[in-house]
Amino acid sequence: MALADVHLASNITTSGGKWSAYSEGIDHKLSASSEGGPSEYVIVADLADARNSSVWQGLRSGGKADFGARSPEYTLGVRGASGFYGTVRLNRESTAEEVREIITEVPNGSLVTTTTTIYTDASIETSIQGNGRFSEDIEIAYAGRGRALKLRELDGTGNFSLNTSLQLSGQQVKRDFGILNESERLMDLGTELAYDHETGVGPMGGI
Question: Which residues share a beta bridge with 79?
């Protein structure tokens, strides 16, 4: 298991030419590029751990620009846009709770169920404008639906100005079943088994 706390802040300005940028994390993918004119690009990313992240990118381009963002629920795409200015912020915070419950005793152990509940809050803020091709898709899991719900699908060309604010919250429940043997049960109760290290025989009792 690996844990990391990462902070990235970067800025690029150009007077012309061609460049592209890409950023990927547990819950995001960001991309941007510009060609043939002055531009300025900024990205700020905070990745606290595998369940919490906040990323922001902004682009101003006097040439032809591409601009994209993706999260588990959200996809934004801009292609070949002139006079482009855009920003997008993707935030996600999740916490997990685990509960183990003994269902029944079985020979040499106990049948247990482990219920893991993941609570998630996410927010998306988008502001883009320019002249070119653009698209935005919002797709979410919803209680009582067997498939993902297409909240919005948007495609267009020409002059555009788009502002989106999206707040999401929900929970995911996962249940696993297994056998908890006597040693694991005692350890789970906070008791460590003692062994005779000379003979290798045990357990001799709790310590």
Answer: 133
pLDDT tens digit sequence for 135-153: 999 998 877 766 788 999 9
Residue with tokens 């893991």: 116
H or E stretch including 187?
A: helix 182-188
Write the CB contacts of 129 (distance below 8 Å, at least 6 apart in sequence).
83, 84, 85, 86, 160, 161, 162
State the DSSP code for 142.
-
Distance CA 59, CA 88 (A): 9
Residue type, 136: E
Q: Taking Cα atoms as reference points, which of 99, 101, 97, 100 lies closest to residue 171?
A: 97
Whether the pTM exceeds 0.90: the reply is no
Cβ(44)–Cβ(81) below 8 Å = no
Q: How does 139-169 read in b/e, with b if 16+ C-beta sit within 10 Å?
A: bbeeeeeeeeeeeeeeeeeeebebebebebe
β-sheet bridge partners, residue 76: 69, 136
User: Using an 8 Å Cβ cutoff, are 88 and 129 in contact?
Assistant: no
| pLDDT tens per residue across span 192-206 | 334 444 444 433 333
User: Residue 140 in contact with residue 151, Cβ under 8 Å?
Assistant: yes
Dmax of the chain from CA atoms? 82
